[in-house]
Amino acid sequence: MRRRVKDFIEISDYTSLDQLIGTLTAIRDNLPPDAEPELRLRGDDVFGRRLSITYFRELSEEEAECEARYSAATLPEDNAAIDGLREQLDEVDYEQPKRRIRRVA
Fold this sequence. Notes:
Elements: E1 4-12, H1 17-30, E2 38-44, E3 48-58, H2 61-73, H3 76-91
C-alpha cells in the first residue's frame, strides 16, 4: 500500500489579483489528479493573512526510504518483548501514597 502525505503551499497577502490568479492556476495545473486540494485563508491582523493550499501527494523516494527504515524497526519480535515487559509490570503491586490535605489558616 502506498502512503500519501499532506503538503502545504502558502501565498502571502501582498500580491496583485492577476499574479494571484496566475499562481493559483499554475498550482492547480501541476497538482496530481488525486491530490484533493483545499484552499483556506489563515492568519490574523497582527501576523498577516495567508492563503494556504493543502493537498495530498505520494512520498518522495527519500521519504519512502526513511519510512521503510523506521517501519522495519518495529518488528513483531520487538512488539512481543514489549508486551512481555508490560505483563511483568502489570503484576507488580503498587500502592498509591495517601494524599495529604493541606489546610490554609
